[in-house]
Write a structure and sequence with these properties.
This protein is α/β, with parallel strands linked by helices. It has 4 domains: 8-219, Rossmann fold; 227-252 and 266-397, Rossmann fold, CATH 3.40.50.300; 438-512, Arc Repressor Mutant, subunit A; 524-740, no CATH class. The strands form 5 sheets. A 7-stranded parallel β-sheet has the order 3-4-2-5-6-1-7, sandwiched between helices. A 6-stranded parallel β-sheet has the order 8-13-12-9-11-10, sandwiched between helices. Strand 23 and strand 24 (671-675) form a beta hairpin. The protein is globular and about 80 Å long.
């Protein structure tokens, strides 16, 4: 350990210094050097933002443990993680050090034995590693004991901070920390650890609502070494069917076509073959964009292993797999004897320690630039090794009635846009807007459980007053919410004014599933006639008569059943083939604007293979041929496509505004499609410029729109559901600004 240049090393307790000597640390990392002076005094909130494997955990724990060792009475560090697997990891990392320091470490989640939890409850000091859900269970079930349980809390350490920001779970965590501070009658310093934060000020506001100016920031710039990128393009050939000779045969063939399964795409097998050839013998992560695709590529790669008579090296990992199968994959990645690659969804994006991987493969555009950055942080972690990104995009062959998405090669253009933004160091800022009323319902029920009843004034003061997690909710809105919870039998009011659980509320709170604020990731079942076509995650509003792409075909949405998570479709005829296929997350405006810049430019990125280069050239040719450089409206005969080149929040706002003004509009991936009627583009522009008055917000939606995205949305009155949805998913301000400039 070179200590002569390190001031921070000497701020650590001598026993910790000795441990670092024994472990043969050469030096403190940049993030650790900068964070230790801020954290060791336990007198302020701190955010430590650094690349994956930059030593963030130690940057928090070395100074926090030093502070604990200096106290005359036992103290407590509460570490909150989004994943049980991360808690198990951190327990393994901390246990050896803490054993030497004689500081107990307590993992606490659903799989931990009751005896361990009882032991912690009797001692209440050391390091507690816990999930938000287990924290919620403590506040609900040990109401009167909460103050005693956390009275020694000296730090709250929140790992993977970016995974909480802007989510229902993040709002729940804010509320839980706030409620613990109310119970112990003091504030506790909060330390946020994160690899990906686009805007530090927004992150600070999340960490300490209303007190962000006092948050110290540690941003480590050392992003590691060389980055190698290859983007390969694959063209899916057109399916040509023999043309019938007679009219009757044509009718017969059309009927047959409707019933016949679409052919399996050919290109995934070609991508699997390239992955097999390039990745065998090393550890890698492969990210397709859905659970269905994870299963597809796992099957293809396992088959290649069998055909070559070699041991399997490719393992699946996604949220729907059983715990045993996920642990099997994690174990395969961690062991050093045999190479292993995981085909995964974002479940392996967060900091589960699977060791260094050689490369990261991304099939299709990633959900966001931030997630691509997070994924890539797994590669190039060994000294002298580059980080390697292999990207794969599939485009349908041009010809026949190719869609606008195919003509513009949108998969490839979006992938290039995201890679270019990644190289520049841009990624999405935290989405901190949103009323999160679903979680407010859960927290109202939880507070009533904690105190055995509460008045409406106490609830508002605890949850919605200035500086509280739900401070954006007005008194009138809160009263409306509480009344509606009464109508739903979630709450009842005694004659004294005390609010208690209603019969239904009692049932919910007494079930273990209550502790999670987020809805389990349910997919909508897609049904045509009496046949189930499959399931689809839905991240945009679905409306009747909207076209969706599923299983290589275009379908017309006939009904959306929110409660049953069911979409009834029929085969679509004509119209623009949509780019909407669900599941890839919501795209930011900066990405779409970069896509347009790429289409208008002439340079060719060096990391494209010949087919991806051809896709880029074809996309630019189509863009110019269609005259899209100087119009935002493309006439397709029966409909007009609006190309605003904004993110999903703006496009969805444009769609809602056009519908409000009487147009038949629907989302079509990165565009908005409007069916032609009596009125033309000029009337459309005028309607968008008119916008909508805030008091008419509810008129943007119809009764049939699928707005219930979160766990408790079903318990919201329509007026608040509309407000909650708008605050989270619509950007009306930018839509209005864009319309003004048309």
């Amino acid at each position: 350990m070179t200590t002569h240049t390190s001031n921070s090393f000497f701020l650590l307790d001598e026993r910790i210094q000795r441990f670092l000597w024994q472990e043969q640390w050469e030096a403190l990392r940049e993030a650790q050097e900068a964070a230790i002076p801020f954290i060791v005094g336990a007198d302020r909130d701190v955010i430590v933002a650094a690349a994956t494997a930059a030593g963030k955990t130690e940057a928090a724990f070395l100074p926090a443990l030093t502070h604990l060792l200096q106290q005359e009475t036992p103290a407590l560090i509460v570490y909150v993680s989004p994943l049980k697997a991360l808690i198990n990891d951190q327990f393994g990392r901390l246990e050896r050090l803490c054993e030497q320091l004689e500081i107990p470490v307590w993992p606490w989640h659903g799989d931990i034995a009751a005896s361990t939890k009882a032991k912690f409850a009797s001692q209440r000091h050391g390091v507690l590693l816990i999930t938000p859900e287990s924290l919620e269970a403590q506040l609900c079930n040990r109401g009167t004991a909460v103050a005693a349980l956390f009275e020694r809390a000296t730090y709250f350490v929140i790992d993977e901070l970016h995974a909480f920001i802007g989510s229902e779970r993040g709002k729940q965590l804010q509320s839980l920390l706030h409620r613990i501070e109310i119970a112990i009658k003091r504030t506790v310093p909060r330390i946020g650890l994160s690899a990906t934060l686009g805007d530090m000020n927004l992150a600070a506001e999340f960490l300490r609502p209303g007190g962000s100016t006092g948050v110290a920031m540690v941003v480590s710039k050392s992003e590691g070494g060389e980055l190698r990128i290859l983007l390969k393009g694959y063209e899916e050939p057109l399916v040509v069917r023999a043309k019938p000779v007679f009219v009757d045969e044509a009718r017969e063939q059309t009927a047959d076509e409707d019933d016949e399964e679409p052919p399996e795409p050919q290109m995934p097998a070609a991508i699997a073959a390239h992955l097999f050839k390039s990745l065998r013998g090393t550890n890698n992560l492969i990210f397709p964009n859905s659970r269905r695709e994870v299963e597809r590529y796992t099957y293809l790669l396992n088959r290649l292993c069998d055909a070559q008579l070699v041991p399997n090296e490719f393992w699946p990992h996604h949220g729907s797999l059983s715990k045993e199968l996920r642990l099997e994959t994690e174990a395969a990645l961690k062991q050093k004897e045999r190479p292993a690659s995981a085909i995964c969804t974002n479940t392996l994006e967060l900091g589960i320690d699977i060791g260094a991987v050689k490369s990261v493969a991304q099939i299709g555009p990633p959900p966001s630039v931030a997630s691509l950055r997070q994924r890539l942080g797994r590669s190039g972690r060994r000294k002298g090794e580059p980080a390697i990104l292999r990207g794969y995009t599939i485009e349908n062959a041009l010809g026949g009635q190719s869609s606008l998405a195919t003509d513009l090669r949108l998969n490839t253009i979006q992938a290039i846009a995201m890679i270019s933004l990644l190289i520049e160091g841009w990624f999405e800022p935290p989405a901190v807007h949103g009323m999160h009323l679903s979680t407010l319902i859960q927290q109202v029920l939880s507070v009533v459980a904690q105190y055995g009843g509460a008045t409406i004034g106490q609830l508002y003061g605890c949850l919605c007053a200035p500086g509280c997690p739900f401070s954006g909710v007005s008194k009138d809105e809160f009263v409306t919410l509480i009344r509606h919870m009464g109508q739903k039998d979630l709450l009842v009011q005694e004659s004294s004014g005390l609010l208690l659980h209603g019969q239904l509320g009692e049932t919910f709170v007494n079930h273990y599933s209550f502790f999670a604020a987020f809805a389990s990731e349910e997919e909508f079942r897609i049904v045509c006639g009496n046949r189930t076509l499959g399931t689809l995650p839905v991240s945009q509003m679905l409306t009747e008569n909207q076209r969706i792409l599923f299983g290589g075909r275009t379908w017309l949405v006939k009904e959306v059943h929110e409660e049953e998570k069911l979409v009834v479709v029929e085969k679509a005829r004509g119209g623009v083939a949509p780019a909407f296929s669900g599941g890839a997350g919501r795209t930011h405006s900066k990405v779409r604007q970069r896509m347009r810049e790429l289409l208008e430019a002439d340079d060719i990125p060096a990391y494209l293979d010949p087919m991806a280069t051809q896709f880029l050239a074809e996309a630019r040719h189509s863009y110019r041929r269609l005259g899209l450089h100087d119009t935002a409206f493309l006439d397709l005969g029966s409909s007009v496509v609006v190309l605003a080149w904004f993110g999903d929040d703006v496009n969805e706002a444009i769609t809602c505004l056009l519908r409000y003004h009487g147009f038949d509009a629907m989302l079509a991936g990165p565009f908005v499609e409007v069916q032609k009627g009596q009125r033309g583009v000029h009337e459309m522009v005028q309607a968008l410029k008119k916008g909508i008055q805030p008091e008419r917000l509810s008129d943007l939606f119809s009764e049939r729109d699928n707005l219930q995205r979160e766990k408790w949305d079903w318990a919201l009155p329509d007026s608040l559901l509309h407000k909650a949805y708008s605050s989270r998913y619509l950007n009306l301000a930018t839509a209005a600004m864009w319309a003004e400039n048309l």
